[in-house]
Amino acid sequence: MCGIVGYIGHRQALPILINGLKRLEYRGYDSAGIALQNGDGIRVVKKMGKVAMLEKALTQVNQAGQIGMGHTRWATHGAPNDVNAHPHMSQSGNFAIIHNGIIENYATLKKRLINRGHEFTSDTDTEVLAHLIDEVYTIGKVSAEVAVRLALSKVEGAYGLVVMCKQEPDILIAARKGSPLVIGIGEGEYFIASDATPIIEYTKNVIYLNDGDVGILGKDSLTLKTIKNVPVTPEILTLEMEIEAIEKGGYEHFMLKEIFEQPRTIMDCLRGRVHPEKNDIMLGGLSDVMDKLLSARRIVIIACGTSWHAGLLAEYLFEDLARIPVEVEYASEFRYRNPVILDGDVVIAISQSGETADTLAAIQLAKSQGALVLGVCNVVGASIPRETHAGVYTHAGPEIGVASTKAFTAQVTVLTLMAILLGYKKKTLSEARYHELAKEIMNIPDKIQKTLDLNQAVVELAPLFKETTNFLYLGRGVNFPVALEGALKLKEISYIHAEGYPAAEMKHGPIALIDENMPVVIIATKDKTYDKIVSNIQEVKARKGRVISIVSEGDTIIRKMSDFVLEVPVTDEVLSPLLAVVPLQLLSYHIAVLRGCNVDQPRNLAKSVTVE
Ligand code: G6P
Hints:
alpha/beta, six-stranded antiparallel beta sheet, binds 6-O-phosphono-alpha-D-glucopyranose
């Protein structure tokens, strides 16, 4: 949720921190702050609002320092304001801390500290930790590192944090439990961040901290140990990400860039997994667990947000193509409702970030009950791929726009490949149908490219809906999750209320809302429910609703009935969501831009929800 960046080395830290905070702003954008050290005590500057506000404030202060840390905040405890922004100092000014996550027992800790004479300036859980570390340091007369480890042993909750100590100006101390941290290794310098985006332009050599790890970063030294002081051998990995992947590349917004990247990201997702001549599917990440997957009595899918929509779509595909019963669960509900995990259940966790707190907790619960847990994840090396027994990466590349687009279509691509492969291996799909689907999925990148030609039509359509306050999205079968996703995209970035429904359910409630002011987006590509959806459109038109239809190329029937039509290329019905969702992404994008919304950083939302 929040973003962390830290630097220690031979360069001036501030430009690296500011650059890093701008790259991290997609993670949290309520407020931002930095701490610098130059042997003259710790200087903290923090400001409510965007990083640009912080930059303005920085012009007033001494900017020197080769050690520093910065933070972008997504508020949990306490309103977004200057005081609650990170870094937080201890009362004596000995320590500064930046923190992602939630200290769950902060109220108890705070009460005890107040009883011992501590005074707090902010409403945050983080400030409590700064005071606690300082107390252990001062009373215990221990080193800063020992103070951090001992203080953390009293903490319940999740954290990814970086600490600076005035008396030990040559180190940064980092610790992780539940919230990710990655260390970048340079020459005579180290970086620390909540994800690799602020590091990539300086080094590709990184170490991901594991839960319970503490890192002590010096200019020329790095020590890793556990919170209990057991040495940890670092595993150095090479980042495969390129800097272009996290820049806008000429687009006005990351979201638009990411929508337009989809032909390539889906090809990246398919590459090496579908044999282009033999039309065979191979999913290397699942080979070790394939037998268990084939004998699964049930698949339980856990996810949140857009990833949950991909999961719902997968339910249709796994049941239809592989005849495996599927349940799709919100991770947040699954983890707290004492779920029944049966022998032979396979759990699939879907997550773009691989860090969503509820999904991680649901995975741990499923594992503790003996389930085989697979991951479908985008961010390589994130917590979810490391917590799951096996899995498949979606290879969509970094997604910076908070509203998910290319990650969704990559998730759907992976899940579709899984369903087709399982269907073939279980012989619920004929060999001919298996090869036919494998061949057609390879045509999807080109067909998405063609679908993107709709952009201009959507640009022209969007002004008509700029002032609209409500939208309804309807779809049937595999296009029902697409309707949900279309509605979610619109509300996330334009703040227009939108609801998605299975088209036939409209009669059981939402139809009451339909009048000449209600736009109804209907996904009506050619499939076995086509005639039914034609009837649904008639029902909307009979009540004067304004129909925007997403249809297959060459459709004539629905074209006549609709107010607006967006045509997508013809494909197999099983694959049609990959095309149908694209105009919905574009529609929400252009409406949001016209309404003056910050599409990449919508209010109140976070890209990576690392707290429950
Ligand atoms: C947040 C994001 C959504 C995302 C959801 C699940 O709410 O804003 O775009 O779908 O988290 O995240 P995940 O990383 O697990 O897919």
